[in-house]
Amino acid sequence: MKVRVGSQNPVKIQATENVLKKIYDNLKVDSAEVDSGVPDQPIGLHQTIKGAINRAKNAYSQYVDLGVGVESGLLKTPHTITGYIDLQWCAIFDGEKVTLGVSAGFEYPHSLWKKC
């Protein structure tokens, strides 16, 4: 199984490998810097999911079995200090269809939010 992650981010690459090696015995993961088509800090479900899908599709080629896109974005959330929860969306593209998954969300500490 050959997989390409649509990012040079080592955390995204390692996370992809950690999960998929539990499913596929003969796994080879590489990566490529691709355009997500969304802002550097996506806000809202639409931008974040679109970024993950774009990364997966742009990582896919005839030389790999799967393209993987991981995108972190902020979701407007009431009753939070900052007003947002961070979610990571993952898209996997096999050349025909996209499969989506999402992480558990968390709120950034206020000190980090000021830097965004």
Helix content: 25-40%
How many distinct helices? 3
- Percentage of residues in strands: 25-35%
What CATH first level would be assigned? Alpha Beta
Mean pLDDT: 94
The description of the largest β-sheet is: 5 strands, mixed
Strand ordering within the main sheet:
2-1-3-4-5
In the CATH scheme, what's the topology name?
A: Maf protein
Order of helices and strands: EHEHEEEH
Distance from N terminus to C terminus (CA atoms, Å) equals 37 Å
CATH architecture: Alpha-Beta Complex
Radius of gyration: 15 Å
Low-confidence stretches: none
Task: Summarize this entry quickly.
By secondary structure, this protein is α/β, with parallel strands linked by helices. The protein is built from three helices and five strands.
Describe this structure in words.
The chain has 116 residues and is of the alpha/beta class. It has a single domain, classed as Maf protein, CATH 3.90.950. 26% of the residues lie in helices and 29% in strands. A five-stranded mixed beta sheet has the order 2-1-3-4-5. β4 and β5 form a beta hairpin.
